[in-house]
């Protein structure tokens, strides 16, 4: 990473820029080979009736179930409810994680007082909080949002703190030599250098909160959502509905992944921080 610090009449500005060149990407269809092969094998086994059980349904049955769920509006209702919880929990958890991680990374006092407790808090399994959350907040959307907020807070706080600590010491010393104020040091040196790590935390928080959404809907069963759609299919022994729900979960997770990567690259490119 290359920094250039210059001082003029105006307050000094430090700009950070990573100069790693990224090759032009080509469309690669090799990643589709495994899913296509799996669907073809699934179709062949179901068409040949090799499995005499209701546990294996054909892709055609799943496709018909998908059309029914879309036409009836059940899919839209379930998916919108899950995504609304995901967005709310992610926003709360990520905001709290940025504040906590920033405090741990910038303040030695906070690191000494809060750091050990945060390190202990990270070791507690996320699902271990569900009994306490259900007692305090019930089984409704409030409890699910609290659960998702915890899932998003941990990676954001950890990566924000680590990103600030990873800034080379020589850049900080050079900023001090140019008499940067505390605000200028954070704005022009620490924040740009830590952005890739911060975005990694936000990316992980988005994925973790989506996975936690399904867990919350399984364990805190009040309300609607994709998790409840899977539960209904399991209780009714409708494997077509279960498999359709799994496909929706996977496609939604892939879409969130792609969206997070797109936003990350757009923001870093705008700030002239390019990552490979």
Automatic annotation (TrEMBL):
Compartmental location: Cell membrane
Transmembrane segments: 32-51, 90-111, 123-139, 145-167, 188-211, 241-260
Principal place of residence: membrane
Gene3D superfamilies (alphabetical): MetI-like (1.10.3720.10)
Membrane protein topology class: Multi-pass membrane protein
A Pfam match: BPD_transp_1
Location of the ABC transmembrane type-1 domain: 75-260
InterPro entries: MetI-like, MetI-like_sf
Keywords of this entry: Cell membrane, Membrane, Transmembrane, Transmembrane helix, Transport
Cell membrane recorded as keyword: yes
PANTHER family for this protein: ALKANE SULFONATE ABC TRANSPORTER-RELATED, MEMBRANE SUBUNIT, TAURINE TRANSPORT SYSTEM PERMEASE PROTEIN TAUC
Family the entry assigns: Belongs to the binding-protein-dependent transport system permease family.
Protein name per UniProt: Sulfonate transport system permease protein
Organism: Paraburkholderia unamae
């Amino acid at each position: 990473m290359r920094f250039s610090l210059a001082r003029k009449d105006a307050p000094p500005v430090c700009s950070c820029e990573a100069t790693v060149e990224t090759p032009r990407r080509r469309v690669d269809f090799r990643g589709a080979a495994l899913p296509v092969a799996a669907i073809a094998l699934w179709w062949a086994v179901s068409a040949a009736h090799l499995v005499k059980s209701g546990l294996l349904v054909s892709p055609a049955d799943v496709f018909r179930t998908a059309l029914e769920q879309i036409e009836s509006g059940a899919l839209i209702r379930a998916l919108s409810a899950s995504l609304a919880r995901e967005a709310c929990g992610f926003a709360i958890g990520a905001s709290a994680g940025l504040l906590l991680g920033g405090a741990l990374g910038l303040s030695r006092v906070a690191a000494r007082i809060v750091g050990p407790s945060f390190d202990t808090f990270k070791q507690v399994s996320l699902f271990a909080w569900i009994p306490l959350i259900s007692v305090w907040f019930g089984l409704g959307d409030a409890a699910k949002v609290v659960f998702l907020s915890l899932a998003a807070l941990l990676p954001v706080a950890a990566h924000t703190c680590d990103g600030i600590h990873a800034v080379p010491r020589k850049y900080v010393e050079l900023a001090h030599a140019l008499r940067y104020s505390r605000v200028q040091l954070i704005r022009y040196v620490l924040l740009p250098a830590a952005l890739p790590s911060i975005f990694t935390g936000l990316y992980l928080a988005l994925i973790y909160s989506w996975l936690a959404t399904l867990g919350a809907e399984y364990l805190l069963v009040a309300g609607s959502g994709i998790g409840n759609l899977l539960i209904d299919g399991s209780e009714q022994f409708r494997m077509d509905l279960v498999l359709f729900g799994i496909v929706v979960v996977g496609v939604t997770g892939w879409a969130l992944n792609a969206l997070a990567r797109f936003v990350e690259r757009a923001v870093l490119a705008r700030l002239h921080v390019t990552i490979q």
